[in-house]
Amino acid sequence: MDNVEFSPDLPQTSQRERFKLPEDPFMLLFAGDLRTARKNLDTVRRAHVKCPPNVHLAVAGGVENSPYPAMAAALGVADRMHFVGTIRDMPTLMRFGDRVIVVSHPVGDAMLERGVMADTLSVVTSSTMGSPRFTGRQMPRPLHLQHPNVVCVSAMFERNGIADLLHAFAHVRQTQDTQLYLVGEDPDRGLMEGLAEQLGIAKHVQFTGFIADPRAYLAEADVFVFAAHQAPGPLVISEAREAGCAIVATKVGGVPEMLENGTAGVLVAPQEPMQLAAKVGWLLMDSPVSAQYATHAKRDLKRFSVQRVREEHLAVYEQAISQCEERRSQPSTRRAPVA
User: Fold this and answer.
1) CATH number at residue 271
2) Total domains in the fold of the chain
3) What is the mean predicted confidence (pLDDT) over 292-316?
4) What is the reported pTM?
5) How far, in Å, CA of 332 to CA of 315, rounded?
């Protein structure tokens, strides 16, 4: 479906028709790429959640060859699944929401700027502790990594700051004999391996590829680095905190609030390799300071519980259902949002 801009002059019913939105209540999911699509519905499947009979699923984003249809059939909701718009339509589509959930306050601010109404917005921050992903699974065997080391768990995309980290690491290597472990996969890996060769650090950088359970790498990290250029609420930050890592991360999106504004980790500007190098080198050289940050990372982790995330989401869902039922019982007075 082509990108459709919101037209404030049209009545809301016409807006819904343009996006082919269902008339009944619906849950809007943003598919994005294939991996995101799989994660979205796999979360629903793992939680054994089924939508109420009158609630539809509206999926925006790249859905060609996605697992949505098959997984929706397994959930028994295939007849209530609709494919609407593209990922570029997200700000417009969100204006139809009775409730809009975002993973951090900066994302919420961005949604407000794009026209999402403040009284529909809820912030439920990202968390991983107690996730079914590792429940009942033993900790992986120790890897006996070389020390001192720097560990990064990230998809190998340039936008995730991998090139910045390689440049920073090359600078750190000038004064310290350290090793870099890059845990992750994806299309830009070849480019990043080439960059490591160009920088003369290839022998000291290990590209591990995709690791389903990276806890062993986090457990042995002397410094954990998150260098992304943008990040709404990266789950790997909560995983690194749970592991008690000394963290250096870019000050983007929801990262500062996940690191207590710098108390539970060192914050640096994005796309600034020299600043990143300075902070990584500092933590590698100053063991007491590194240990202090690692200790702070482990404090007050209750808010990173998936149980908290579940309860907050359910509270939002219940509020949305209540609002919907109240609206259905009264003549409609809601107007189309202004673009």
Assistant:
1) 3.40.50.2000
2) 2
3) 90
4) 0.77
5) 24
